[in-house]
Write a structure and sequence with these properties.
It is a single chain. The protein is of the alpha+beta class. A 4-stranded antiparallel sheet has the order 5-6-4-7. Strand 2 and strand 3 form a beta hairpin. Helix 1 packs antiparallel against helix 4.
Length: 331
Amino acid sequence: MIRPADKFTMPRRYELISSVIRNNILNGRLPPGFVLLEGPIASLTQSSRAPVQAALRILEKERLVRRFPGRGYLVAPDGEAVEPLRRDIRELDLQISGEIDEALQNRGTWEMVYDAVEDAVASCLIFGEFRIIETELGAHLGVSRTVVRDVLSRLHESGLIRKNQSSHWIAGPLTAASVRNLFAIRAILEPAALRMAEPHIDYVEVDRVLRSLEAEGEDLEAETLDQVLMESCIARAPNPELVDAIARNSMPLIAANRALTRLGLPRDRIAIRDYASLFGLLAQKQIAPAAELLARYLDMMAERSVARLKIVAIVSESSLIAPYLTPTQQN
């Protein structure tokens, strides 16, 4: 049972979602074999997919759900053998306690403004180091200090901001050296997770993406393909801590790539062709060669990302920095 949270101990959204699902598995309203899909759960809990993914990984670790060859997770307490039961979770009469429902509603406020703040912080990373002024952020958004703290806490969890020795919230800088370091970590962790995920990979989704690559080619976005690779392959590794580490490490790179694209820099078309080769191996269930190829591609992607980052030096930052972001003396 989740206790009523005060402003300093408000449970994270994925904890609330995992509690809802856990309670309904234990009380039998989510029967064995029920297929849990991220999208419907996100809709039910008025959430994004990220906390739903985290909640399902927690429940998998608790042996209440498990992965299977199709999409989603199966309700399977203690790993019991079950047949997939596909229904819309929103049609079930799930029990959601009043306190959890209230907490989900309360957390909706910060989620409504989070994306805008994340975009602003991502845009500043590539220009140097900035301090986030909490009072100015609250005034800019027109929200309370509690909401501001929830937003900053989520940004901190994602790895986009940190606290310095003076307990000030700091964003950036994302330098050529840090980009290379983050990609080096990716090249170690992601191929390892891909190998571990082999029995759990969603090959139906892999085939769908491969057909899309063959039909649409360079019209697809590299970020979209990266996300599919993560969700259908890498994130299915039976090691939640490893998956979380990969997600946190990748967040600054994903955010910076979005910011560079908004600045008008061209898409990484080489990456599209690389993904086509990678998904081709995955579709053939050649996981070991695919993992080796992924490591090589990430090394090459690091250098292309550094080259894109260098172009920022000639771009004026004045119109791209939010008013609540103040350059530090290190800029």
